[in-house]
Amino acid sequence: MEEFSTINPGTMPENRQIRHAAHERLKGNWLYAVLCTLLFCAIETMAGTIPLAGLLVVCPLGFGFSIAFLQFVRGEVEGDDLVTRPFAVFSRYGRMLGASLLVVVLTFLWSLLLVVPGIVMGYAYRLTPYIAHDHPELSEFECVRRSKQMMRGYKWKLFLLDLGFIGWILLGMVTMGVALLWVVPYMETAHATFYERRKSLGTA
Asked: What local confidence, expressed as pLDDT, does residue 6 receive?
């Protein structure tokens, strides 16, 4: 990405640079990013009223949502194609369902110990949807394991990246969630940008 052209290729950019790169990528595409988020949230809300649907639909669709913004960051998806791209995940439904449920179950089990371990391991598994997309040769368990490897030494950095959005998240709460339609795609774009740069450094 052009925003990282002056950064040593062997290092991660600063979080402010990642957020800036995400913001630049969204220029001219905010409408589509917001519509994509609105559609995802609407389906998530409806499916969430039925527990089984919440698992069978929302979990893999959440992976599809993240993957859609990864493809957006890569320039593989543009304009209105972004709005419906999360649904492409259903062409690999079994794999994405398995991977997403595995992340949910593992994070839940860690959370049974204490809240903090659950949060920490949630960050360890954060790259799983991207890895599942990029490496179809890997099993669901291997995707989770690869995410843990790649996030070793980077969990705190990603946590701080998210913390940098706290003001926007609070604004979303004040506006009854309306502003979150802009905050969520901004964060997703930043997360995908984080993954792209982390991937370029190789696997730990």
From this structure: 46
Rounded Cα distance between 111 and 99, Å, is: 18
Q: What are phi and psi of 42, to 5 degrees?
A: -65, -45
pTM given for the model: 0.91
Rounded Cα distance, 119 and 108, in Å: 10
d(CA 188, CA 183): 9
Which regions in the chain score pLDDT beneath 50?
5-6, 204
Task: Write the DSSP string, 97-147.
Answer: HHHHHHHHHHHHHHHHH-HHHHHHHHHHTTTHHHHHHH-TTS-HHHHHHHH
Element (H, E) at 38: helix 30-48
**Amino acid 155: pLDDT:** 95
pLDDT in tens, 37-53: 999 999 988 887 787 87
Residues in the chain: 204
The set of residues, in sequence order, having a beta carbon less than 8 Å from that of 110 and lying 6+ positions away, is 117, 118, 120, 121, 122
Q: Which residues contact 162 (CB under 8 A, 6 or more apart)?
A: 187
